[in-house]
Every structure is written in C-alpha cells, then in structure tokens.
UniProtKB/TrEMBL annotation:
Enzyme class: transferase
Taxonomic lineage from the root: Bacteria, Bacillati, Actinomycetota, Actinomycetes, Mycobacteriales
Lumazine-binding domain span: 1-64
Recorded GO MF terms: riboflavin synthase activity
The protein's name in its UniProt record: Riboflavin synthase
Organism: Mycobacterium kansasii
Amino acid sequence: MEKGSITVDGISLTVSGLGAQPRDWFEVSLIPTTRELTTLGSAPVGTRVNLEVDVLAKYVERLLPAREQPTPEARRQPRTPLSKAGALGYAPTLRTSGPRDGSQYGSQ
C-alpha cells in the first residue's frame, strides 16, 4: 500500500491504513514520543480534530468520481473557510485503538 501523510491538529503523521471506501476512515501510527509530546496522546476518543492534507491529495480527490451526493440540508449549510479554500471542510473526530498486535504502547 502506498502511504501518504496527513496533518492532525498541526502534527504531521504518516497514513498507515485506509478503509475499504477511501472516505470511511484512515489510520496513523503514533510512536511513544509523539504521543507524549503532543496533544494527541491525551485527546479522548471523540475529540474534534483539524485535518490538513497535501495538495496532491486534493487534486486526486477532485479527479475521483463523487460517491455520495450532499443532502439538500447539507447544501444549505454555509461553506467554511476551509471548504472555500478546497480543503476538507468538516471536523472529523478522533477514534483510537491500540497496536494491531494487541501489545501496549510504551517507551524504553
């Protein structure tokens, strides 16, 4: 799988996994140092975060066919400065899980 990067609350991270549908979810791996020295380590599940993607990802998103049409209610919503600039325009929430192998995070 080719990996990309995403910035979550100003912290640049490498994408380590994607959902079956690209808009379903993405996964990043946090090393212990990043967890300890940033706000991500103490953010509870459900915390709203700011996402920024690289310019190439924005162009790819525009080239892909639309999978879902906005509802009439969503069309009436005012556009955010981010969406006007071509960014994501929504506030995703943080969901966390432990390492895939079931081990605990830790540093030595």
